[in-house]
Fold:
Amino acid sequence: MGVRLVLRITLKENTMIDSQKYKTLTVAQIRAGLLEKEFTAVELAQMGLELAESEGKALNCFITLCTEKALGQAKAVDAKIAAGVELGKLAGVPVALKDNMSYRDYPTTCASHILDGYIPPYDATVVEKLIAADAVIIGKTNMDEFAMGSSNENSYYGPAVNPVNNTCATGGSSGGSAAAVAAGITPLALGSDTGGSVRQPAAFCGVQGMKPTYGAVSRYGLIAFASSLDQIGPFARNSVDLAELLTVISGRDKHDSTSIDFEHPDYAEGIDESPDLMRIGWPGECFGEGVDHEVLESIGELRKNLEEVGHTFVDVSLSQLNAGIACYYVVATAEASSNLARFDGVKYGIREGDDSDLLEMYRKTRGKGFGAEVKRRIMLGTYVLSAGYYDAYYLKGMKVRQVITKELDDVFSKVDVLMTPTTPTPAFCMGDKLQDPLAMYLSDVFTVIANLAGTPGISIPAGRTHSGLPVGAQFLGKRFDDARLLKLAHQAQKLIQ
Structure:
């Protein structure tokens, strides 16, 4: 097992904030508290680090704590306040990063043994933007290895634990980020969403999580799984904070040719205003066999609440929904096979075997460095790209992807947004699906279509089961309709509360 880089810190005895208050703070409350001298940014950072070391260790949701830089960033915020300098949008706000985003001077492991010892010499664009907004980066969070998984059980560092129920999975692959926010360790976190990897753990842990429109957020510095599907997305406990974080990280980046130059708004501005009344699509395929009855009850109750405030629900069909999982696992694994070819023991990470036989060194390094799920996907991706099978699988998968995208476009010509469960079931017990990869893959049946089509999606808490497990509701929108989704999510959140 790898070594978790955690430095112990001690809170000052005269700290002006206790852990319970800290865990409830919003971005706006942090800014107000700093300006009114209720607490300092250093005290916030110390509390975040203390919780990450104690509760975070119990939940196994952090791989690395970034203590030195976090305290330095917090001191810089306090110095700005003392000098009367204008603060950034996220001044003093503790943030956690999924450990597949490059952060200079700290390990980026992708929760994989093969990247032991790798420290990136540069910051991901989203990290640069967080620092420019005066955020305080507390640490790097646990995840499924190379973002491949739906439960965070595929991590070299062990599974993250769901704060709501410690016997349950956090969801994946961004399980550590979801758990950190759900436990109150940080108000905000970043994850990556390739087939639902932000939205599904958000649903399992009872927080909000969003996959932005593809190209709205730079992927520079995000270690690639499937480049045409990957998208960095935010976690928060409420939609206003989610909007604040998305505003900071969005925008064109010259380092990422897939990022799009568009005039994105301040997503939090006007979010409290009631959204225009919408036509909300209700896909029958998402409410039938295989969906837990308590999930259906929670989503049905939210529908009633939205209807009562004037929104109209329209029955629509997603006839290609079931093709989405098969299509995704062809396209995503093909891209993973190509992207992960670079991890061979030559340039970075571990190296197994001596230098006398290059192919043997490749074999031993990749054999020991990758976990079982990553190997499974690399082999599947290599197979679908191989001579004689390319047309039958990869090319066909790309055609199905176009059909799915067209169907979504057609549906969005009739409705403004779609509403579905985020997942067919609440969080499942750890270990329940490890021996059945297909059952695990089906956890993403409602989320993968947004990645295949490049559209935005958001998951919000929609209630709890009788045993107390969170249920997630998903809203899907047209490309670059991220602001509309956030407004609707904000209204829905208030209706549920």
